[in-house]
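P.,

For your records, the input lines for the assembly:
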Amino acid sequence: MKQKKLSRRRVLYALLLILPALAFRLFTSLYPVLYTIYLAFYQVNPIVGLFRYAGLGNFQKMTTDLVVQESVFFTVFFTFASIGLQTLFGLLVALLLNARFRFRYFARTVNLIPWAIPMIVAALGFRWMFDSEYGIIPDLIARLFGFRFAWLIDPWGAKWAVVLANVWKNTPFVALLLLAGLQSVPSEIYEAARVDGGTNWHCFRYITIPFLMPVVMTTVLFFTVWYLATFDIVYGMTGGGPGFSTAIMSYKIFQETFSNMNFGYASALSVLLFFLVGVLGAIFLWISHFFEISI
Amino acid sequence: MIAARMRWRTDGTILYFLFLIYLFVTLLPFYWIFISSVTPRHRLFSIPPLYFPRYFTTENFLKMQTSIPFELYLRNSLIFALSASAFSVLLGFFAAYAFARIRFRGSSVLLLLFLLSIALPPITTVIPLYELYGKVGLLNTIQGMVIAMGSLITPFTIWVLIAFIKQVPVEIEEAASIDGASFLRLLFGISLPLILPAIGTMFVINFITSWNELLYPLVFAVDAQSKTLTVGLTEVALESTAYGKPWDLMSALSVIMIIPAIVLVILFQRTIVEGLTKGAIK
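Structure tokens returned:
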């Protein structure tokens, strides 16, 4: 009897402890989401005091807005290209940081630095390095491979430049997680495989990869959701240009909100972004489920 | 035997070669930003670029400080990052303790909701918060930015702290409880000291995240009174020179913004890695 009373009291304490965090989360996430969905059905411009019911007007406008198509395309392209490259490079860097050599602790420290700096610093730094006249990246490429390319002026060049800068910034974080995954593989398994005559490649393919798979899927899921919301790098590096070729969704929403003061349309675009996050997140959850069973 | 040793030696050479490429790619942007920050403007904009400049100046740092209210922004950045970090760690510790130590119906669903809220793109919450902040007087205040930022990083903080709290043997608290310790005494007198290192870890990580934040200050800070260094950098970038953007001044400010990151990484490398990997690897 006393035990029961005690445990009920503890539940009350638990709720009291969670309440502050929950209240602030509701205030900064649930309330804005509901209000954004509401605004998506209105035409709103706070400067001229416009607030009029628009039905599906904002969504209809989206289907004919060419910038939206380009924006959705680049958002998905950016997400997939970044995740593909950073997983590949992240694995290579993790293997390097896990290898036994004299400077590995130094290398692990260096590895954290790109993670720790502001994205806007990296974005502007890369804009400077990709500069078509004074930049060192076009110059280095010209010296090494003999051709010059104006990255940020070409639509596809700009798309790839943004992806590459992003991969530079976030590969260390992926490598860090994969390194922790590598270190969690018990060494006895490798020893047993060697005794049975397993080669380096066998060990890598049949021990390392399966062990890393759950970590890889966790990072892929996390970054999918995170990259769909990317803002800083585009704001700093290209401003959505040239044209609208790198106008990632968050940037387009920001522009509609603060340059065009189209609060209703920006909200409808936000709803589209929720939808994108939900669909791609669900697909990746489903894929990760599939992977855990098959390996 | 000899063959094995030879293979090891070639492996070693390849390893150092890969290491050098890795260092080059990782450090090149830092090298170039630093070089750009100490090179006089008329030497910086040269074709081809001067990879090993022979001209040195500290003037860029002085000029940068007159193009924006640097000291004010620096102060705002520090207050913003320290407060948002403290706020999220406080909220995170309370909630994580409840999730890790107390069983109640619906606790896993509630935790899942916290984690799902990370998936919400921050830009989509900006209009409602902007209007609301305008009404309640939080617009253009550091407090308003701290609330939004602290709340944003709380779910991850909860997630990592739960993993840390679960590592501490529950027997210590049970023994204290049998001795008649009150709940508050358990929370603050027993558990808090035991996971203080983890709280320190999350404080450092959240400080770095908030120091680096651009979107919230960009949206909610209307004037210099509450703007941070990240916004300041985009303001320096707005100036134009005969050559284009003032890369000399931007690089100088970038160097100043990178320094805290490097210092914190060198001081707390171990603990940062532990905190970041805690959530992903069991």
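Two observations worth noting. The two ends of chain B are 39 Å apart (CA to CA). Confidence is low (pLDDT under 50) at residues 1-8 of chain B.

Regards
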